[in-house]
């Protein structure tokens, strides 16, 4: 068992570890194979400040203008009255210890989210603790990301991620069903288990209000153009559940949150009931 003596609120995750795929190549084939190619040491040689200098294709990590994560603040939010359309369904899935996080991958048709008329099929879900995105400067205890990918006829992939924030409280029902599988893969980076049919609707991501903005991947290559949707409603997760997710990953991932990025010229939209404010 690893020595977990760092502050609970200092521990931080990094967001989803997938890259853009092209043509018929798989997503996994495009991922960074060596998970130690970069780390999160604030002043380290491979830390966030140096990512853009480690490889030419990672330049956006330092030079990008639409980077993630960011803070959601009312001073720069426009309210838009527009319903969200999601259509998730039961599909076969696996759970995998990727060394830096625990991830579910759905195979087959797990449903989609629709944004501005474009369908984004669901592919992955993974957890980070604490949250990388903040609301009014507050960082929460955990953040779940549902990763959706759309491939157009030219082979270009567009990415949409739904984020749900959690605070310590009652156990999370969906995560409770995975506790035994996750417990079996502590310190086993690369371990993957088939968990059968999993219903994404049990995550209960539906909410009346959510933030939306355009950002990036939060790990190299920090690709921009990602559509982020962050639920305004904060849900609960137990301390034991968060602790297990932390224990399962490698030691270097105990503090793995990318620092907040500048908003620059971006606008954050708040979708929900009410009058549209321009």
Automatic annotation (TrEMBL):
<comment type="function">
    <text>Reversible hydration of carbon dioxide.</text>
</comment>
<keyword id="KW-0456">Lyase</keyword>
<comment type="similarity">
    <text>Belongs to the alpha-carbonic anhydrase family.</text>
</comment>
<feature type="domain" description="Alpha-carbonic anhydrase">
    <location>
        <begin position="36"/>
        <end position="272"/>
    </location>
</feature>
<feature type="signal peptide">
    <location>
        <begin position="1"/>
        <end position="29"/>
    </location>
</feature>
<protein>
    <recommendedName>
        <fullName>Carbonic anhydrase</fullName>
        <ecNumber>4.2.1.1</ecNumber>
    </recommendedName>
</protein>
<dbReference type="InterPro" id="IPR001148">
    <property type="entry name" value="CA_dom"/>
</dbReference>
<dbReference type="InterPro" id="IPR023561">
    <property type="entry name" value="Carbonic_anhydrase_a-class"/>
</dbReference>
<dbReference type="InterPro" id="IPR036398">
    <property type="entry name" value="CA_dom_sf"/>
</dbReference>
<keyword id="KW-0732">Signal</keyword>
<dbReference type="Pfam" id="PF00194">
    <property type="entry name" value="Carb_anhydrase"/>
</dbReference>
<dbReference type="InterPro" id="IPR018338">
    <property type="entry name" value="Carbonic_anhydrase_a-class_CS"/>
</dbReference>
<keyword id="KW-0862">Zinc</keyword>
<keyword id="KW-0479">Metal-binding</keyword>
<dbReference type="InterPro" id="IPR041891">
    <property type="entry name" value="Alpha_CA_prokaryot-like"/>
</dbReference>
């Amino acid at each position: 068992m690893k020595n977990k003596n760092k502050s609970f609120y200092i521990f931080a995750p990094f967001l989803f570890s997938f890259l853009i795929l092209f043509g018929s190549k798989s997503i996994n084939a495009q991922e960074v194979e060596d998970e130690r190619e970069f780390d999160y040491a604030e002043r380290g040689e491979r830390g966030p400040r140096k990512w853009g200098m480690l490889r030419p294709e990672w330049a956006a990590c330092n030079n990008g203008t639409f980077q993630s994560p960011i803070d959601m603040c009312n001073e720069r939010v426009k309210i838009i009255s527009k319903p969200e359309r999601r259509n998730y369904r039961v599909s076969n899935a696996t759970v995998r210890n990727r060394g830096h996080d625990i991830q579910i991958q759905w195979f087959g048709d797990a449903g989609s989210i629709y944004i501005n008329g474009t369908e984004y099929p669901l592919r992955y879900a993974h957890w980070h603790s604490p949250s990388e995105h903040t609301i009014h400067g507050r960082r929460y205890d955990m953040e779940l990301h549902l990763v959706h990918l759309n491939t157009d006829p030219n082979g270009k992939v567009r990415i949409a991620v739904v984020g749900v924030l959690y605070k310590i409280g009652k156990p999370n029902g969906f995560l409770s069903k995975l506790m035994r599988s996750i417990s079996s893969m502590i310190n086993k980076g690369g371990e993957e288990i088939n968990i059968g049919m999993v219903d994404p609707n049990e995550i209960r991501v539906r909410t009346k209000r959510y933030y939306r903005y355009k950002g990036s991947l939060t790990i190299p290559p920090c690709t921009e153009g990602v559509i982020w949707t962050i639920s305004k409603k904060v849900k609960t997760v137990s301390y034991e559940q968060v602790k297990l997710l932390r224990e399962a990953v490698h030691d270097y991932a105990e503090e793995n949150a990318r620092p907040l990025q500048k908003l620059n010229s971006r606008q954050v939209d708040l979708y929900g009931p009410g009058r549209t404010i321009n």
